[in-house]
């Protein structure tokens, strides 16, 4: 019974009347971590309806009070960072230090949101800027919340990526229906417990859990949901985009971020960044480096540096602070193993790794990857790094432009002019010069183009994405 968590509606934690549960198993040990309610559509309906009812009052609450709630929430989270961190570590199989780090980073995002939110002001436009318009016509443009935001978070940052949606929604005056990914749901529930503890008014955030097949489409298409902020896989994101009707969407989906290493790059630095970018948390990050384009004159040197650094990676248990850890589930490990087998069968060289023990895939470096191999294109979300040797930067650009993804890209070069020229050719949200891809610092705009997403996140942009203009024209 202790392992059975409850859902939250109207600040009451309840069990589902269905008495059905979704079990969550630890990736490291395969042991049961706990269960979350498999809610019925009726229960989800209630969660959405009550969030809608609560929204009017919440939007009327002075923004500085909404901001104060967020500050209190951040404090409560930090007070419980070890406990919540331990749950994240267990539930999604990440190292305790990075899990606690996630909670701290989350508190920082919430505080920044509390600060940013009180500085949102509208604007005033005068009519005479447009031909024939009059000075006596003034537009007062206010910022209004959208209503009820549906926040759907992924497994890999179950607290951080949830709060990065909930906090901006709240500061903007929206109420929230929060649907965590199953793996990570308990951590998400603990995060909301801290929010309730901080003084959350009733139904300003309701939590729904359950099986996607039962409640997924129902909640996404619910007529009282006014905006969806989703982070997760591309296929699910596309499905949401097709089903949700005429409401704003922010989608942060898959990636295949390239590291493009030019002939003049500082190879030692590039190799360090590539290793960190590709292998931390076994590459289970949307912004992980998922392929390397390297100019062939320096490819041998880069590959041998990467190989040496891979040998030094700590591989094994997340609970023992390993970098390369078992993947979230067997299906993920099967997929990644399949990519290695495919590349090998088509003539690639396995420079390091290649083996699998249960769901732990050894950090794998695959050289001489060509465009007929699946690993050149599909998102691995695992500790496998393909090296694609190119004769020129133009070849790299040409290949990159064929990618279905466009989250971030890294360029390694000492020549800023070359980097600038390259930036304009890359159809991605962000280009990192001489650094690995990453979302943070969390106030930077975070954008995926092509199949990597829709809309922009990052604290300020996330708040904007959850508000609309309301115009009042004054005719003097
Ligand atoms: O998995 C997607 C995350 O938004 C990536 O965040 O760059 O902080 O790991 P990160």
List the helices and strands and how they pair.
Elements: E1 7-9, E2 12-14, E3 21-25, E4 32-37, H1 41-60, H2 63-79, H3 81-92, H4 96-117, E5 123-126, E6 137-145, E7 148-152, H5 160-171, E8 175-179, H6 185-197, E9 205-207, H7 212-220, E10 227-231, H8 234-243, E11 249-252, E12 257-261, H9 267-279, E13 289-295, H10 296-311, H11 330-345, E14 349-352, E15 356-357, E16 360-361, E17 364-367, E18 384-390, H12 393-401, E19 405-406, E20 408-412, H13 416-425, E21 430-433, E22 446-447, E23 449-450, E24 453-454, E25 456-457, H14 459-465, E26 467-475
Parallel strand pairs: 7-8, 7-10, 8-9, 10-11, 12-13, 12-20, 13-18, 17-18, 20-21
Antiparallel strand pairs: 1-2, 3-4, 5-6, 6-26, 11-24, 14-17, 15-16, 19-23, 22-25
Helix pairs in contact: 1-7, 2-4, 2-6, 3-4, 3-6, 4-5, 5-14, 9-10
Glyceraldehyde-3-phosphate (G3H) is lined by residues 156-157, 285-287, 438-440.
Task: Give a quick summary of the entry.
The chain has helices at 41-60, 63-79, 81-92, 96-117, 160-171, 185-197, 212-220, 234-243, 267-279, 296-311, 330-345, 393-401, 416-425, 459-465; strands spanning 7-9, 12-14, 21-25, 32-37, 123-126, 137-145, 148-152, 175-179, 205-207, 227-231, 249-252, 257-261, 289-295, 349-352, 356-357, 360-361, 364-367, 384-390, 405-406, 408-412, 430-433, 446-447, 449-450, 453-454, 456-457, 467-475. The protein has 476 residues and is of the alpha/beta class.
């Amino acid at each position: 019974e202790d392992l059975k968590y409850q859902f939250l509606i109207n600040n009451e934690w309840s069990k589902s009347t269905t008495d059905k549960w979704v079990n969550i198993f630890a990736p490291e040990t395969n042991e049961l971590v706990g269960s979350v309610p498999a809610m019925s559509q009726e229960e989800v309906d209630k969660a959405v309806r009550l969030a809608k009812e609560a929204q009017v009052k919440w939007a009327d609450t002075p923004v500085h009070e909404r901001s104060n709630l967020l500050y209190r929430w951040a404090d409560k989270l930090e007070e419980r960072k070890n406990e919540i961190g331990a749950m994240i570590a267990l539930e999604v199989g990440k190292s305790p230090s990075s899990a606690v780090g996630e909670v701290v980073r989350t508190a920082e995002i919430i505080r920044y949101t509390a600060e940013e939110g009180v500085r949102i002001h509208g604007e005033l436009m005068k009519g005479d800027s447009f031909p024939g318009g009059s000075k006596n016509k003034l537009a007062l443009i206010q910022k209004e919340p959208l209503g009820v935001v549906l926040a759907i978070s992924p497994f890999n940052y179950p607290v951080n990526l949830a709060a990065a949606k909930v906090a901006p929604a709240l500061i903007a005056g929206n109420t929230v229906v929060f649907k965590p990914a199953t793996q990570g749901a308990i951590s998400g529930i603990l995060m909301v417990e801290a929010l309730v503890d901080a003084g959350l008014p009733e139904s300003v955030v309701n939590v729904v859990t359950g099986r996607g097949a039962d409640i997924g489409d129902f909640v996404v298409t619910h007529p009282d949901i006014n905006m969806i902020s989703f982070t997760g896989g591309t296929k699910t994101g596309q499905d949401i985009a097709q089903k949700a009707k005429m409401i704003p969407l922010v989608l942060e989906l898959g990636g295949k971020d390239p590291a493009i290493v030019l002939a003049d790059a500082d190879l030692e630095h590039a190799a360090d960044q590539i290793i960190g970018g590709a292998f931390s948390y076994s590459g289970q990050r949307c912004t992980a480096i998922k392929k390397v384009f390297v100019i062939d004159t320096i490819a041998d040197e880069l590959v041998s540096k990467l190989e040496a650094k891979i040998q030094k990676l700590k591989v094994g248990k997340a609970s023992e602070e390993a970098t390369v850890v078992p993947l979230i589930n067997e299906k993920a490990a099967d997929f990644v193993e399949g990519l290695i087998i495919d590349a090998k069968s088509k003539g690639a060289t396995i420079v390091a790794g290649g083996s699998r023990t249960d769901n732990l895939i050894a950090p794998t470096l695959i050289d001489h990857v060509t465009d007929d191999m699946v690993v050149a294109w599909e998102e691995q979300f695992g500790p496998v790094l393909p090296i694609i040797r190119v004769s020129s930067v133009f070849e790299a650009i040409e290949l990159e432009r064929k990618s279905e993804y466009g989250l971030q890209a890294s360029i390694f070069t000492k020549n800023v002019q070359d980097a600038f020229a390259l930036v304009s050719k890359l159809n991605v949200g962000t280009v990192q010069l001489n650094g690995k891809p990453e979302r943070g610092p969390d106030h930077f705009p975070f954008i995926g183009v092509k199949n990597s997403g829709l809309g922009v996140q990052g604290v300020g942009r996330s708040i904007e994405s959850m508000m609309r203009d309301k115009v009042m024209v004054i005719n003097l």
